[in-house]
Design goal:
- The protein is 60% helix and 10% strand.
- The strands form four sheets. A four-stranded parallel beta sheet has the order 7-8-6-9, with helices on both faces. The protein has a three-stranded antiparallel beta sheet with strand order 1-3-2, covered by helices on one side. Strands 4-5 form a two-stranded antiparallel ribbon.
Length: 474
């Protein structure tokens, strides 16, 4: 019965090939036109493709830019309104991504043909001559295989890759066109040794790099990352696309940030992964190295996502209690602390409103400024506070008060914070318990220092003075 069904419907691989077949035929048809272009006309197709993509998503991208500008211009915007605007941006980004995918599918036959014809010309010509542009000049200063003479640039078909001089001798055949189409559509392409999987990747990498939003090519070791970046990179650079490899640069460096801004970025799975983790641990967006993720190809995906996936699990270690975490025991106390602060801030806001009713009284205004700053240090995200600060003059009053208390290295800031249970510093992303907060928390504990981190240096010094055995000291 199973064999009969297979004969009737075909197996999945056969059905997939039938689905992709028409796209490959479109590539072959487009190639018949592309192969007659001059070298300059061939290179000009990249700018043409980029313009088509830009025009196709212009409406969404312009609206995203407009909303971002609105958020930047309106500093006192209500938090709820700001959240709605960011939700709108997220929706527009999703629509833009979907439309980008549509236009890339339209461009695919021509784009694949451009890459195939580029490979053929490098294979059949020792030197490829083009009209020089700015990027050609930049490459000529770094690569021996690119030379500038007058207004012409000359690309030789020999260059260094992985420490060896290679001569380009490959061109895409039907099997690579099938593989490239599969990869573009986000599927796994299983290819046997000798079927040219490295060459296959040039097709979807070039196509998706046209968006300008970055393409990542993940390999299993740094030698392959650097070699493939140099080996295949020439085809991309010939068309004005920037190529880099993160494994050349130190983590969290300016050079690595620039590598991620390239059109095509090579690297190892470990470096990509740890950069992602570091970006998610930082409290400052300026310290992040990666930009938004767009398109990625993972070489030897079974090794990277299955075999090597055991490593992060080993690093993270076991979680014997499952969802029952240690902090659950302290949750009730922390919640009571927050509730006390919330009640306090609410009473402060009520007092501020009464003081501001008579703004002709300078003392009232001065006290209102102090209380505004106190409420802001207490719960800066409080909806009622945000609304109050959006009223004319209130934010300026708070900022003026803050400037006063920041004088002389903020030595008098305790006047603002002492009445709170804890003080929040948004600029430094920190929360400090006050004496009042510590007293509230330690009521349930015998140790009054329970919520205070000890000064390790002082503790060690005290232990050294005591005449006790070394084991007890430890």
């Amino acid at each position: 019965m199973i064999n009969f069904i297979k004969k009737l419907l075909g197996d999945k691989a056969t059905r997939d090939l039938k689905a992709i077949g028409p796209e490959v035929e479109q590539v072959k048809a487009a190639y018949e036109k592309i192969k007659h272009l001059s070298n300059d006309q061939l290179r000009a197709k990249t700018s043409e493709f980029k313009q088509r993509i830009k025009e196709y998503i212009a409406e969404e991208e312009n609206e995203i830019d407009r909303i971002k500008q609105q958020i930047n211009d309106q500093q006192d915007i209500d938090s709820n309104e700001k959240e709605e605007l960011y939700l709108t941006i997220d929706k527009l980004i999703k629509v833009s991504y979907e439309k980008t995918e549509e236009v890339l599918n339209q461009i695919l036959p021509e784009a694949f043909s451009v890459m195939k014809e580029t490979a053929r010309r490098f294979k059949e010509n020792e030197v490829v001559e083009v009209t020089a542009n700015e990027m050609d000049g930049h490459l000529a200063t770094k690569l021996d295989s690119v030379n500038i003479e007058g207004d012409k640039a000359y690309y030789r078909n020999q260059w260094l890759a992985g420490g060896n001089t290679i001569t380009w001798d490959m061109v895409h055949y039907d099997v690579q066109l099938f593989g490239g189409t599969v990869l573009h559509h986000g599927k796994i392409a299983e290819m046997a040794t000798g079927e040219g999987k490295t060459l296959v990747a040039t097709l979807p990498v070039y196509l998706n790099a046209l968006t300008g939003k970055g393409v990542h090519l993940v390999t299993v070791n740094d030698y392959l990352a650097k070699r493939d970046g140099e080996w295949m990179g020439m085809l991309y650079q010939f068309h004005g696309l920037k190529v880099d490899c993160i494994d050349y640069h130190q983590p969290n460096s300016k050079e690595r940030r620039l590598a991620y801004l390239a059109d095509i970025t090579f690297g190892t799975n470990n470096e990509f992964g740890f950069d992602y983790l570091r970006d998610n641990m930082t409290g400052n967006s300026e310290e992040m190295v990666q930009r938004g993720h767009n398109y990625v190809i993972v070489d030897e995906v079974d090794s990277v996502l299955i075999d090597d996936a055991r490593t992060p699990l080993i690093i993270s270690g076991p979680t014997p209690k499952g969802d029952s975490q240690e902090f659950d025991a302290l949750k009730a106390d922390v919640q009571s602390l927050y509730n006390a602060q919330k009640t306090l801030v609410s009473s402060i806001l009520a007092e501020i409103k009464n003081l501001l009713k008579d703004q002709s009284n300078n003392e009232n205004v001065k006290n209102a400024g102090l209380l505004l700053l106190r409420a802001y240090h207490g719960l800066p995200k409080n909806t009622a506070l945000i609304k109050l600060l959006s009223e004319e003059g209130n934010r300026q009053l708070m900022q003026k008060t803050e400037s006063f208390f920041l004088q002389e290295q903020a030595k008098n800031m305790h006047v603002v914070d002492d009445e709170l249970f804890f003080a929040i510093d948004e600029k430094h992303n920190s929360v400090d318990l006050t004496e009042k907060g510590i007293d509230l928390l330690t009521r349930s504990y015998d140790d009054a220092e329970f919520f205070i981190l000890p000064d390790i240096g002082s503790v060690v010094a005290d232990l050294e003075k005591q005449n006790i055995p070394e084991k007890e000291k430890l």
